[in-house]
Specification:
- The complex is a heterodimer of chains A (about 450) and B (about 260).
- Helix content of chain A is about 50%, strand content about 15%.
- In chain A, strands 1, 2, 3, 4, 5, 6, 7, 8, 9, 10, 11 and 12 form a twelve-stranded mixed β-sheet that branches.
- By secondary structure, chain B is α/β, with parallel strands linked by helices.
- In chain B, the strands form two sheets. Chain B has a six-stranded mixed β-sheet with strand order 6-7-8-3-9-10, sandwiched between helices. In chain B, strands 2-1-4-5 form a four-stranded antiparallel β-sheet, with helices on one face.
- Chain B is globular.
- The chains are: A alpha+beta (about 450), B alpha/beta (about 260).
- At the A-B interface, helix 1, helix 2, helix 14, helix 15 and helix 18 of A face helix 2 of B.
- The complex binds adenosine-5'-triphosphate and magnesium ion (MG).
Chain lengths: ~450, ~260
Amino acid sequence: MKRARSRVGEPPPHLGPRDLLAEALAGILQRPGRAVLTVLGTVLGVGAFVAVLGLTATATGQIGAQFDLTRATTVTAVDQPDTAGLPDGAVPVSDFPADADSRMARIDGVSAAGVWWPVRNDPAVTRTPVGDGNPAVTRTPVGDGNPAVNRTPVGDGNPMVTRTPVGDDDPGQALTVLAATPGAVRAMSPRLTAGVPLDPFMERTHQPVALLSAAAAARLGVTRLDAQPAVFINGLPYTVVGIFDQVRREPGAPPGVLIPSTTALDRFGNPGATPDQAARALVATRVGAAAVVARQLAVALRPDRSEAFTVTAPPDPHSLRDHVTTDLSGLFLALAGLCLLVGAVGIASTTLVAVLERTEEIGLRRALGAGTRQVAAQFLAESTALGTLGGLLGTALGVLTVLAVAAARDWTAVLSPATTLPAPLLGTLVGLLAGLYPSLRAARVDPLQALRTG
Amino acid sequence: MSTAGSASAPGSASAPGSEDVPGADVSGPEDAPVIELSGLARRFPGPPPVTALQPTDLVVRRNDYLAITGPSGSGKSTLLHLLGLLDTPSAGRYLLDGIDTGPLSDPDRAALRGRRIGFVFQAFHLLPHRTALENVQLALTYHQVPRAERRPRALAALERLGLAHRTDALPTTLSGGERQRVAIARALVNRPGLLLCDEPTGDLDSANARAVLDEFDVLHAQGLTLLVITHDPTVAGRAGRHVAMRDGRLTAEVTR
Ligand SMILES: Nc1ncnc2c1ncn2[C@@H]1O[C@H](COP(=O)(O)OP(=O)(O)OP(=O)(O)O)[C@@H](O)[C@H]1O
Ligand SMILES: [Mg+2]
């Protein structure tokens, strides 16, 4: 180049980057409508690419957020007692056998398991004679004969728990009273701040004892256990054996008061029959055993009536992630690739048409001193700019899609900068490759022929 | 008007068709040859093959004002394209400002074309989506003229052709005469030494044609070398030298 320059005494033709960009943009803006249609394929391709990667990352992040050890090691089974043939308002016997705790504990992988249910306080129900000859569930009718119940206004269906036998000026505290077997209490893993949990002895002997949450204890004014304080549920006394400040495995509702299930059966009758009132099992499993335990649970409880239980296992994080990865990513990335190919063909054909349409311009530029290289560079820049434009629009579209989906699902959008920031360059690359052939054609345009037309 | 041609050295074109280098070509630097052709020919391979330009000798000196006339298809445009380095000859030698253009690479030819030659075409060849000013600036794009200089230089060129008030107009809104003046401004903005014009007045009415020819006279008086192809005898009459062309041959110099 230097030798050539000295030979003709003129600097070789040159098109600086700013001029190149200006020419490329001018060429695109010459036909804005066509440019928009041209980049559509690239927009969709890059957009799909960004959206798929973003959604995969977002969904995976979501799984990560949901995946905690407690959830992954918790299996539940809800009883659906058979109410057929029972008189209206009658409460059937729970399908859980009396030895449910030990039956579940025998399943390999179970670390603690038990039965619990929210204690009912429905006068209509408690008046109903219950019992079908099964000694485990034989009931003392509760209600009419109990002056405390009759005297106390019942609010939201929760039994009234009071510090004193329901009296004149104590309106009582509506607390969530749960009946729980010792296994259920262990599965909940309450963190005791004082006393002891409910144990098999209390269960076996139908003790009137209660385990209080710290919040319930505070509301009832129970602070110390050394004096063996009592609380009253619907007027009947229970000795407080322990206080816990939190449970690791929340059974469903935050428990306020836990009482032995045998005691609850004696005093409040059978668990309800509706799904939110029915007795249920809470099973703590070892890590990774949840799915296996869930499969065996119903049969282990009642080989004769396993269909009575609706067993819920935690979602398997691996299968969820695989699902997202294979289904979404695989298919849509292939689609994104297809869109990019279509986009490249679109840009290539548009640029080729532009070259053919603008041969006069090419000839003129050659007459004004442009070399073949400058002409080629101009059209290559034009296609590259088109691709970059498509890449930018596509990236914006992809990001918006991820944000919209995340917002709709209440997820946290995860957009990795490593894949999002270079995404427009994907469009640049598409445009560059698409422009190779057209720019070669532009360079080969004969200025003579080009200027003759006109 | 006709005095403009007197500055040139008449009779410097050699005998047409001769294979020899023209004899009387060495003068002072004032009339150094700008164009020196020896046996330059152009044959289009076809089919059918056409010899548009027979081997031709021609010398055009600095500040010559040369008109080439001839019937359609006689090879005038072919010659002009060869002189403008837009086409390559199939035989012969072409020296531009003493530089043998034969062995030059494409960038070198482009550099010479852009810097030393200005073109004026019958069809104007203005970019339709660019303003008059942008069209003129386009000629400065390829020659490393700093961006800051381009606008004032293009404005000055337009102003000089009486278009200061139309700088932001699109070519479609300009009259034919105005368009050709924009094209001339574009051809001059690089300060070339040689102006090649192919039927510059072909698409203009007589008033506009006269204005363009007046401008050529001014340019010639300022030292520019002009070569004008035309059908129009009145246009040829304004030039200092007049060469006729027929069937790809330069015929004898027309003297007046
Ligand atoms: N690219 C080409 N291929 C084949 N033949 C060509 C080509 N260009 C020109 N010719 C032929 O060369 C001859 C000279 O053409 P040229 O354009 O130089 O004529 P001209 O004198 O400029 O005519 P006009 O006055 O009509 O413009 C014509 O016969 C033309 O057909
Ligand atoms: Mg012609």
